[in-house]
Amino acid sequence: MDPVTTSHPAEAAREPAAPPSLEVSGLAFAYPDGHQALFGVDLTIGQGERVALLGPNGAGKTTLVLHLNGILAAGAGSVRVAGLPVGKRHMAEIRRRVGIVFQDPDDQLFMPTVREDVAFGPAAAGLKGPELDARVHEALRRVGMDDYADRPPHHLSFGQRRRVAVATVLAMEPEILVLDEPSSNLDPASRRELADILRTLDVTVLMVTHDLPYALELCPRAVILSEGVIAADGATGELLSDAGLMRRHRLELPFGFDPASVADRA
């Protein structure tokens, strides 16, 4: 691993009794065809941290994310969410605590109205009546879409649909919000609106992205996953400013973009 060290205020401020939002220890995984995707990944994310997961295509980022809520089962090692081991015994609670927002919002929106899409998860978990209505309203309010509750999702813009997709996950009151390429296919205004929303959320965020300026803007900490291992873990600005590190792991900044010139508003 490249020698990048940094302190994380969120961990220092956390009470000792509170477990981290995510603990990955020695995680290894091979697909049935024999392809080894992960080789002993260790990663700890404290409550309330916003962390960018960076790396080239094929690095193992999606494989890692699919272990967080039990879609894939570890070949070796372990994953714990808020102190709970990911496994059959706690699967329902794990999947409530880990909310994944996919790159394509149409993968998550399938009901006739926005309201019904956001209500789907909590209703399936047994919530109903005024409590369900309040949960839906609050989730839509947090993403600025409460005025669109009765609209069909397919009548919304792509950026609006992505915000509704975030609301469907927030309605489950997760501990960890996993975002897969959240800025992809967004126009500049929608990109900015989503960034403003993500800053306000009081949940742990793991953002999988190739959009390095977006990672710098929103995530104080970044982790580079490369060839199935954690290659670097540190302050986002420091990692992106390390030209040798970036080159070794096939990461490239937009032409003319200087991380040192950007005020990290995270």
Tell me what you see in this structure.
- The protein has 266 residues and is an alpha/beta fold.
- The protein has a single domain, classed as P-loop containing nucleotide triphosphate hydrolases (Rossmann fold), CATH 3.40.50.300.
- It has helices spanning 9-13, 61-68, 91-97, 114-124, 129-142, 158-170, 188-200, 212-218, 236-240, 243-248, and strands spanning 22-30, 36-45, 50-54, 76-81, 84-85, 98-101, 176-180, 204-208, 221-226, 229-235.
- Strands 6-7-8-3-9-10 form a six-stranded mixed sheet, sandwiched between helices. A four-stranded antiparallel sheet has the order 2-1-4-5, covered by helices on one side.
- A hairpin with a 2-residue loop joins β4 and β5 (84-85).
- α4 (114-124) crosses α5 (129-142), α4 (114-124) runs parallel beside α6 and α5 packs across α6.
- The longest helix has 14 residues, at 129-142.
- The model has no long low-confidence stretch (mean pLDDT 90).
Number of helices: 10
Overall number of structural domains: 1
Helix content: 25-40%
CATH architecture: 3-Layer(aba) Sandwich
Shape call = globular
How many beta-strand segments?
Answer: 10
The CATH topology is: Rossmann fold
Rounded mean pLDDT is 90
Mind telling me the CATH class? Alpha Beta
